[in-house]
């Protein structure tokens, strides 16, 4: 392993017992257990922590490092880094984490977006021929973010088309774009990977046509399933491609996520973004709120650290334990943490 910090010499560590095959097997076991809401994830989580973080931790702490940005080889880019566990607590309770496709794609410039407006799009329902299930929480999530928590512009349902997306982007070149919808990434079948609009799907090849680098989108949040899931041909999925297309930072998910948990995480993230020093820290703070039960489902609303969020009518799932890493560790930052 190689760790590079702003100051000091690079740190090189060899872990002889951590051969590639064993690490990949452990990583797959961890991913499968967390992403399927199982409770037996701590053993692989703690083993990965001992291999990937523990050998570097003392030196990085001595240098005052609070954010870990990982550039991983193929096979390890699906790890929910925030859910690695040291035996006492999760990584998210100590550090912010994230991924980058490569060093040369990281934008090191800092821009304060604590009060920046949001351009938010979402679909809670879709044209019949799209064969997609409804997402009732999106109808709450989108206006909550772009009207109540932050100033901005939002577009919902039938208006969420490619033409409106491009036109609104041109008319309102806000530094933050939020997309709440369905998405899927199919490894080995890039033509079947998509982000769902109301009436059609956006393929991987169409991302560059959205003009995300002119002007630069400082933060793209893809509040959708498996939007950070990728393969060798598209590292870190849609989010990784968005960073390659010029987005400074993307936030996306590593697996199929629940509607209610996502609503809670996103509302808390945007509230934290108004005060957090960097984006990765805002996401970490939202995750910690879920880990420690400060953000929870209570009756017909989600109670967070800075307010409540109503749940969609008819939400009858009463036993969702939002402290499980399935709910809070799926989303990760990709690109610049600042």
Structure characterization notes:
The protein has 338 residues and is α/β, with parallel strands linked by helices. It has a domain at 2-105. It contains nine helices and 16 strands. An eight-stranded mixed sheet has the order 3-4-16-12-11-7-5-6, sandwiched between helices. α4 (138-149) packs parallel to α7 (259-273) and α7 packs across α8. The radius of gyration is 19 Å and the shape is globular. 46% of the residues are buried. The mean pLDDT is 92.
Short description:
The protein has 338 residues and is of the alpha/beta class.
Which features characterize this protein?
338 residues; alpha/beta; 8-stranded mixed beta sheet; 3-stranded antiparallel beta sheet; 9 helices; 16 strands; 18% strand
Beta-strand content estimate: 15-25%
- The helix content, as a percent range, equals 25-40%
What distance lies between the first and last C-alpha atoms, to the nearest angstrom?
A: 24 Å
Mean of all residue-level pLDDT scores: 92
Q: What is the string of SSEs from the N terminus onward?
A: EEHHHEEEHEHEEEEEHEHHEEEHE
């Amino acid at each position: 392993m190689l760790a590079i910090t702003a100051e000091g010499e690079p740190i090189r560590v060899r872990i002889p017992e951590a051969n590639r095959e064993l690490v990949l097997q452990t990583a797959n076991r961890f991913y499968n257990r967390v992403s399927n809401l199982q409770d037996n994830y701590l053993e692989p989580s703690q083993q990965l922590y001992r291999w990937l973080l523990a050998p570097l931790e003392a030196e990085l702490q001595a240098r005052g490092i609070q954010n870990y940005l990982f550039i991983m080889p193929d096979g390890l880019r699906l790890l929910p880094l925030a859910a690695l566990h040291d035996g006492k607590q999760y990584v998210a309770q100590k550090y912010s984490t994230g991924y980058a496709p490569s060093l040369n794609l990281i934008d090191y410039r800092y821009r304060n977006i604590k009060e920046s407006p949001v351009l938010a799009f979402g679909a809670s329902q879709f044209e019949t021929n799209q064969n997609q299930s409804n997402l009732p929480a999106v109808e709450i999530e989108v206006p909550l973010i772009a009207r109540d928590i932050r100033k901005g512009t939002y577009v919902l349902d039938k208006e969420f088309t490619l033409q409106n997306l491009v036109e609104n982007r041109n008319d309102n070149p806000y530094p933050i774009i939020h997309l709440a919808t369905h998405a899927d990434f199919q490894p080995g079948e890039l033509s079947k990977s998509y982000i769902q609009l109301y009436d059609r799907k956006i393929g991987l090849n169409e991302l560059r046509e959205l003009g995300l680098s002119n002007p630069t989108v400082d933060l793209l949040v893809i509040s959708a399933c498996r939007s950070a899931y990728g393969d060798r041909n598209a590292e870190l999925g849609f989010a990784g491609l968005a960073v390659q297309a010029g987005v400074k930072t993307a936030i996306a998910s590593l697996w199929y996520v629940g509607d209610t948990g996502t609503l809670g995480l996103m509302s808390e993230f945007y509230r934290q973004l108004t005060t957090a020093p960097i984006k990765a820290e805002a996401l970490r703070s939202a995750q910690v709120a879920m880990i420690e039960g400060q953000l929870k489902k209570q009756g017909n609303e989600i109670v967070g650290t800075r307010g409540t969020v109503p749940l969609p009518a008819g939400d009858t799932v009463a036993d969702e334990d939002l402290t499980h890493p399935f709910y809070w560790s799926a989303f990760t930052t990709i690109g610049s943490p600042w």
